[in-house]
Structures are given as C-alpha cells and as structure tokens.
Design goal:
Elements (H helix, E strand, L loop, with lengths): L1 E2 L10 H8 L12 H13 L4 E5 L2 H12 L4 E6 L3 H4 L4 H6 L2 E5 L9 H7 L9 E8 L9 H14 L2 E6 L2 H8 L3 H5 L4 E5 L10 E5 L1 H13 L8 H13 L4 H16 L4 E7 L2 E6 L6 H7 L2 E2 L1 E3 L2 E5 L6 H15 L2
Parallel strand pairs: 1-11, 3-4, 3-5, 5-6, 6-7
Antiparallel strand pairs: 2-8, 7-8, 9-10, 10-13, 12-13
This protein binds pyridoxal-5'-phosphate.
Length: about 325
C-alpha cells in the first residue's frame, strides 16, 4: 500500500530497528536511561537550546510546554486553527486551567498580530493573565519565515510574554528555508518537535527550551503520566531518525511537488496547495466512492467532501508517487 494519509504512518527502517534493539537502557524517571539522556542532549544541541525533555507524543509535549509557561488562570494566545488549540482535546484548558485566546491566522499560517495586540488583557482581576504566545511551523505544510518569527518575538518581548513554537514539523521548515533547525528555533523560549512523523521514528516528541522551563515541564510530564521507564528502546529510534533522516526530507518536498504537478494535470482534480511535504487538492465534483476505488489500486489517501490532503514521507518513493497519480487518474477517468 502507498499510504499518503499522513506522515505519522511512516514506519521504522531496518537500521532504526537495529539501533532500537541494541539500545542501552535504564530507568528514565530516575534519569538513568543513557539513550534518553543522549536523545535529549542531541536534540537540545540541534535546536540550540540548553535543555530538552523526551515525551510520548507531540500533544503531551505542547501541553508540558504550556503548563511550564502558564499557571491556573493564565492565558495563551494562539492561531484559531492551530494544533494546540483545535486538535489537542482542549488539554491546556481541561488539565491546566489555562484559557486559550484564539486569534485569526492569515493565508500564510501566521497569526494576526494586530488581533493578538487587541487580545492582550490588562492587569485587572476581571481578566485572565495573558502569559504566552504560540506559533506553529510548519502549519498545514506552510512555512513561516524568520521575519514572521521575529515579529512574534518582538511582540512577546513588548508585552512580557513567553513564546512557544509547536514545531512538530520544524525539520521540514528548516529544510524549506535552507536554515539549520537551531536558526529556526532561535527566537522561541520553548520548542516542541516530533520524531514520529516524516522522520520515521515510531514514538515520541521532544520539548526543548531553557533549563528552568524544561525542569518545570519535566515535573508536568510525570503528573500527566508521561514518565516512562526503559524508554531508551524507543528513544533510540528517535535518535537514529535525527542522525539519518533529516537531510532526506528534501526528497519528500520534491515528491510533493511531483505529486502536485502530476495530479494537477489529471482531468477532474485541482491542486489547491503544495507546501513542504503536503499536497492539497479538490475534486471538480465530489465522488464519495473514489477513496475506496483508489484504495483498491493500492493507494491510501484521505478524501473528505471531495477534498484531499496527501502527505509525503520516507515510506513513499518517487516511483510510488507516479503510481499514485496513475491510480487516481485511472479512477477519475471511469
Ligand atoms: C502531529 C502534531 C502534533 C502532535 O501530535 P501527536 O499525535 O500528539 O504526536 C502537534 N502539532 C502539530 C502541528 C502536529 O502536526
């Protein structure tokens, strides 16, 4: 099966599995797991931060970050369709008593700083205390620029706010911008990155930041049930991914462009967006059984209401892209 539903479906490679099988382990809650410690050291260095925390998921990583920045009755400003606001079960509010303040995002994925300005609350007992600004990069595959990051930093400094980046796919942003991960991460106090998407590791995310914020996040990880024991087994997969699969993300971006060009040439489908490793398209006419028929030809993709997001990752080759285009074209011609 050629699986384009998400980059989360990517599977560990044989080399990664060998590294996992050979990993030295210990009790990570005690700080004894050498592989987790090395993953945290390596990721912090890669992102130019002083500390890092290995967590089971990106959702928990963002939540630990929010809890480190904010207390009960505080507020974070966030884009209205950001992952931390829309797709994490409202965790900050549910578990942290932290109020989200959504503001509109523009077509580049950047949140509207004028709206954010209007949303910052004065110090008054009527209001939640505005503490944090959250950005996401990449967002729907789109890359925020360093200028946009800097504008957010200036805004946060002006209002005395912390600045968090949901960088689940920061690696893709770095490749697209031609910058190092540390350059992309530089303006932020905390950065969450995923190892289990296009990098191919089976489990895990890392929260990076200052010693102080990461120490607070470590406490919250335990509270949230994310303290794992011999986690070096899975951390080894993440470390292997960072050491071997970063540069190849450029291949996913090239494959996305190839898929977009191929699909756009097919009658009955229009590509509406292609950024980094994602391709968005729209059928000229909704065809509710297309997904099943294309699946019958060995291609899995998400088709809802005639719209599709296809995501490239290390288990999809250039030849697979051509097969996927052929399969979709064949079914649309029926
Ligand atoms: C995937 C993702 C996360 C976290 O996802 P988990 O499934 O919890 O690991 C966070 N933010 C963004 C933008 C994501 O794409």
């Amino acid at each position: 099966m050629i699986d384009l539903r998400s980059d989360t479906v990517s599977r560990p490679t044989p080399g990664m599995r060998a590294a996992m099988a050979a990993a030295e382990v210990g009790d990570d809650v005690w700080g004894d797991d050498p592989t987790v410690n090395e993953l945290e050291r390596y990721t912090a260095e890669l992102l130019g931060k002083s500390a890092a925390l290995y967590v089971p998921s990106g959702t928990q990583s963002n939540l630990c970050g929010l809890l480190a920045h904010c207390e009960r009755g505080d507020e974070y400003i966030v884009g209205h369709h950001a992952h931390t606001y829309m797709y994490e079960g409202g965790g900050a509010a549910v578990l942290g008593s932290i109020q989200p303040q959504p503001v509109p995002t523009d077509e580049t994925g950047m949140l509207d700083l004028d709206a954010a300005e209007a949303a910052v609350k004065p110090d008054n007992s009527h209001f939640a205390r505005t503490k944090l600004l959250c950005l996401e990069n990449t967002i729907d595959g789109k890359v925020l620029t360093t200028e946009q990051h800097q504008a957010a930093r200036d805004f946060a400094d002006h209002h005395g706010l912390g600045l968090h980046l949901d960088g689940a796919r920061l690696w893709n942003a770095a490749v697209a911008l031609g910058l190092s991960p540390a350059e992309v991460a530089a303006p932020f106090d905390t950065v969450s990155v995923c190892l289990s998407k296009g990098l191919g590791a089976p489990v895990g995310s890392v929260l990076c930041g200052t010693e102080e914020l990461v120490a607070a996040a470590r406490r919250w990880r335990k509270v949230l049930g994310g303290g794992m024991r011999q986690a070096g087994i899975i951390a080894a997969g993440g470390l292997y991914a960072l050491q071997h699969h970063l540069d190849r993300l450029a291949d996913d971006h090239a494959n996305a462009a190839r898929l977009a060009a191929g699909l756009d040439a097919v009658e009955g489908i229009t590509v509406t967006g292609c950024d980094t490793n994602m391709v968005f398209s729209q059928l000229d006419q909704n065809d509710p059984t297309l997904g099943k028929r294309v699946e019958g030809r060995g291609v899995l993709a998400d088709w809802r209401f005639g719209r599709s997001r296809m995501v490239l990752h290390l288990d999809v080759s250039e030849a697979d892209v051509d097969k996927a285009i052929e399969a979709i074209a064949a079914e649309l011609a029926v």
